[in-house]
Specification:
Elements (H helix, E strand, L loop, with lengths): L7 H4 L7 H5 L16 H6 L9 H16 L6 E2 H11 L1 H4 L6 H12 L4 E2 L1 H14 L1 H7 L6
Antiparallel strand pairs: 1-2
InterPro entries: EF-hand-dom_pair, S-100_dom, S100_Ca-bd_sub
GO molecular function: calcium ion binding; calcium-dependent protein binding; transition metal ion binding
Organism: Odobenus rosmarus divergens (Pacific walrus)
């Protein structure tokens, strides 16, 4: 979507206690399907670096895990799966957006994506773009901070 380059090392999550991940060079690591029985919270808990992580770090790690669990062995997300994730995992940001021109443009760009698949960078850009135009973001900005 943006044409930016990034290394596969940036996308690699090293899980504590998984020798296959730490032993292999990062360039050969392809996202693996996690068993569906392992919850995201358990997967997050297994990442040693996040034990004392900030809420923002945990939020990004959650996105990365959801992407990884849903992606194919090449680390790509099919358009149908991406749309399903938007509807199931991001519905509070997408609800009520269906008639907005900017939302329609984002989805049509997804439909026109040449590879028919999204990498992690493209998926993050899609999530951020939807977040920026969402009604929920406006509600978040209006929340009063309590001291």
């Amino acid at each position: 979507m943006c044409g930016c380059t990034h290394s596969s090392r940036d996308q690699t999550l090293h899980l504590e206690g998984d020798p296959s991940l730490s032993a292999a060079p990062p360039s050969t690591l392809a996202p693996r399907k996690m068993r569906k029985s392992v919850s995201i919270s358990k997967q997050l808990a297994s990442i040693k670096a996040l034990k004392k992580g900030s809420d923002l770090e945990k939020a990004i790690a959650t996105i990365a895990l959801i992407f990884r669990n849903s992606s194919d062995p090449d680390g790509k997300l099919g358009k149908a799966i991406a749309k399903d994730l938007l509807q199931t995992q991001f519905r509070n940001f997408t609800e009520g957006q269906e008639t907005k021109p900017k939302y329609k443009d984002l989805l049509s760009e997804l439909d026109e994506h040449t590879e028919n698949k999204l990498d992690f960078e493209d998926f993050m850009i899609l999530l951020l773009s939807i977040t920026v135009i969402s009604d929920l973001l406006q509600n978040i900005w209006s929340v009063k901070i309590m001291n």
